[in-house]
Specification:
The protein contains 31 helices and 15 strands. With 741 residues, it is α/β, with parallel strands linked by helices. The chain has a seven-stranded mixed sheet with strand order 1-4-3-2-5-6-7, with helices on both faces. Strands 8-11-9-10 form a four-stranded antiparallel sheet, with no helix packed on it. It is globular and about 90 Å long.
Length: 741
């Protein structure tokens, strides 16, 4: 009885420490799993020793991994898996093969392995990445359904399957003459398992789930889901395959059923609870003394592993015709040593393929790479953007993608640009084309590009938020832009950068969550669509029509709800915090600025100041005394001493400072952007020349997305966007000249 109480005490200690560590990490704006890892280190055998016997904790931690993969299987439908099947099968095997080969050569070359079998074994350990850490990071960032998320998860799933084969072949490394028979046995086990899983998932699981759901008992449904998850996971473990693979397959069995969402909602609390135990258990394995005594060697190994694996993954992803940004994010996401390499290393140690010192060094190296992974994934989009701007790098990328990047005429104009060709994008493109509109699609999935090419739909292959891609899309000549990307961060970046190329472009955006609605509207979207709300509005409109309500009254009510950003039907609304703003704008340049005395902005409304048009910045928040107003509306009045959080490029913020200090005129009058055509008589003129000839000011010029000061007295070129200001009649006449064809 005492031992049982001791286990409960240790379990409570780990959970409590994980909760505290996760909270601290959250407040420090770091992934919570870093807090879980740190909490395990603190309370574990090498820390405060509050938990000494980790065996039972590790058993529960394995359940955390199983639930993580089970939830992924439920969400990761077979239809989505088909999008990345090429890189899942060929790319992952190529990555594993290259890593094993290079790992073996390097370990033998540096004397870390005495014979080829030891080198191969070390290569196998290095070839595996962390499904649990990557999946948890993607889930926290809401990126499991993005293209880079699916690419990484597809590779990781195949790695988990190969892990089973590695474990099965491990004894044969000590006796190479048995290698072929061991390989055949492992493959046979895998074939038998997948055949049985298909039969059970097709004919047995659906009726069982329906019968259980018919009882309307939440407890029975939850128990059935848990039994399915752990039962299949234990089956794969008994066959010598990985627990992860079994849990994932169990999730796939439910993915296509009507009860998938219900099962997922029931399992999520268990997943998060046991996952925290898993990450804490990894922290318990880390011995700070060993890390410190071998710090130089471990840091060198960390650098070698992370740079080496990233260098292997990057060209492989590019070779399968994914965009550069997707390849960079995948490289940073898969460049660690997986937590299940511990299992492989421990087994290898028993077979004499690894000595005690190598095991400890490998343990420390793995722990550090796992800790660094969430940080690397967070900054990888920024690193990709900066690398792409390096001239030599940019030229290589353009040459790499020249044969498949564009299928659109350079003279395209009056078109609708659709960013994203997923389920939403495909329907939108179909509607527009059936009505006779010219469409240009921006997409970074090779599978989607194949469809576009076969249907003769103009496209650009690449990341939609890339400046190079946006320049080729000719947004300044487009009628509208529809953003239907699965990635919230890419959606925000694209919206901001699209308005830099075409400040008055009509942009409609799909929102991924309720808090995003206000953010996207504040950044300049004309219309923000929340799919769930739109479905509810259409259903409600139909029901009201059936009940005899007046059609015009129904449409008026629906229009009011949309105009108010769905505020009246958003039941989960909560106060916006500064942390929400920081998270939303982490990939954008932002600054807090104070309005000085005698500023022309004093007592002006945001609408009258028209700061986005004049400078390109967006005001995200205003501090007035002790009050902070987030996402301020146009009627908000500015006053001396107010602190403004503005988002924009550095040159746009500089332009805002000029307005703030009265060095750039602001009159709150007529401001209108126009784009110069090839045959416009204004081409070749300067802003001063236009003012002298037509008494109309050109307050700002945008060229290829960059904001230019009119003080530079630049000569205007075709495609330039000019902000006209002055008497409305004169300005409209100049606008006609600008657009004269």
């Amino acid at each position: 009885m005492a031992s049982e109480h001791n286990f409960i005490l240790e379990l409570t200690t780990v959970l409590g420490a994980s909760a505290f560590g996760g909270y601290v990490a959250n407040r420090l704006r770091q992934p919570v799993l870093l807090g879980y890892l740190a909490s395990g280190l603190v309370v574990g055998p090498f820390g405060l020793q509050l938990v000494r016997d980790t065996v039972q904790i590790n058993a529960l931690a394995e359940m955390g991994v199983a639930f993580l993969l089970f939830a992924l299987g439920v969400e990761f439908s077979l239809a989505e898996l088909k999008r990345v099947r090429e890189i899942a099968l060929k790319g992952s095997l190529l990555q594993i093969g290259l890593t094993i080969t290079l790992g073996a050569l390097i370990s033998i070359g540096f004397g870390w392995a005495g014979q080829i079998t030891q080198g191969v074994f070390l290569g196998e350990i290095l070839s595996l990445s962390s499904t649990a850490v990557v999946l948890k990071t993607l889930t926290e960032r809401g990126e499991t359904n993005t293209l880079h998320g699916q690419v990484m998860l597809a590779i990781l799933i195949v790695q988990d399957l190969v892990l089973g084969l590695m474990l099965a072949l491990l004894p044969a490394l000590d006796a190479p003459e048995n290698l072929v028979s061991a390989l055949l046995a492992a493959v046979l086990k895998a074939v038998l398992f997948f055949t049985a899983a298909f039969v059970v998932g097709r004919w047995l699981v659906p009726p069982v789930i329906r019968y259980v759901a018919a009882t309307e008992s939440s407890e029975l449904f939850l128990l059935t889901a848990i039994a399915l998850c752990l039962g299949v996971a234990l089956t794969t473990a008994a066959l010598g395959l990985s627990i992860e693979m079994g849990a994932f397959v169990a999730g796939l069995m439910l993915a296509e059923l009507d009860y998938a969402d219900r099962a997922l909602s029931k399992v999520l609390p268990l997943r998060d609870t046991f996952a925290s135990l898993f990450f804490a258990s990894i922290g318990m394995l880390v011995d700070p003394v060993v890390l410190w005594d071998n710090l130089g060697s471990i840091l060198a190994l960390v650098l070698l592993v992370m740079v080496g694996k990233a260098a292997i993954v990057l060209p492989i992803v590019l070779q399968f015709r994914y965009s550069f940004k997707t390849a960079v994010i995948a490289a940073f996401g898969l460049n660690q040593i997986g937590e299940f390499s511990f299992v492989l290393a421990l087994e290898g140690k028993e077979f004499g393929l690894l000595n005690a010192e190598q095991y400890l060094l490998l343990l420390g190296t793995t722990a550090i790479t796992l800790v660094l992974t969430p940080i690397g994934m967070r900054w990888s989009p920024t690193i990709a953007d900066r690398l792409a701007k390096i001239p030599l790098f940019s030229q290589l990328l353009q040459r790499f993608g020249s044969d498949r990047q564009f299928f659109s005429p350079e003279t395209i104009r009056d078109h609708v640009v659709v960013a994203g060709y997923g389920r939403v994008g495909q329907v939108l493109v179909k509607i527009l084309r059936e009505r006779g509109y010219q469409v240009l699609v921006i997409e970074n999935s090779e599978a989607a590009i194949v469809k576009l090419r076969s249907n003769q739909i103009p496209y650009i292959f690449g990341d939609a938020e890339s400046g190079f891609i946006l320049e080729k899309a000719h947004l300044e000549k487009a009628k509208a832009l529809a953003i239907a990307l699965p990635d919230p961060t890419s959606t925000r970046l694209l919206l901001k950068r699209a308005l830099e190329f075409a400040p008055e472009l009509d942009i409609v955006v799909r929102s991924h969550s309720n808090p995003e609605i206000d953010l996207l509207a504040q950044l300049g979207a004309r219309e923000v669509v929340q799919p769930e709300f739109e479905a509810a509005l259409e259903m409600g409109g139909h029901m009201l029509t059936t009940l005899g309500e007046n059609m015009s009254s129904i449409q008026l009510s629906i229009r009011k709800i949309r105009t108010d950003r769905y505020q009246s039907i958003r039941s989960d609304a909560r106060p916006i915090s500064e942390r929400d703003i920081d998270t939303a704008t982490e990939q954008l340049h932002s600054e807090w600025v104070t309005i000085p005395e005698a500023s022309p902005l004093h007592w002006m409304t945001l609408a009258a100041a028209d700061l986005r048009n004049l400078t390109g910045v967006t005001v995200m928040a205003i501090e007035q005394g002790n009050d902070t107003l987030f996402y301020p509306k146009g009627q908000t009045t500015l006053r001396t001493g107010d602190r403004l959080l503005v988002v924009g490029k550095p040159e746009e913020v500089l332009a805002f400072y000029e307005v703030l200090e009265g060095r750039r005129s602001i009159d709150g009058g007529y401001n209108h952007w126009v784009t110069l055509t090839d045959t416009s008589p204004l081409v070749g003129m300067t802003p001063n020349g236009i003012y002298n000839d037509y008494q109309t000011q050109v307050k700002a010029v945008r060229r290829h997305g960059k904001l230019y000061s009119v003080d530079d007295d630049i000569e205007l070129e075709s495609g330039d966007c000019c902000l006209l200001s002055g008497d409305p009649e004169r300005a409209e006449y100049v606008a006609e000249l600008a657009m004269r064809g």
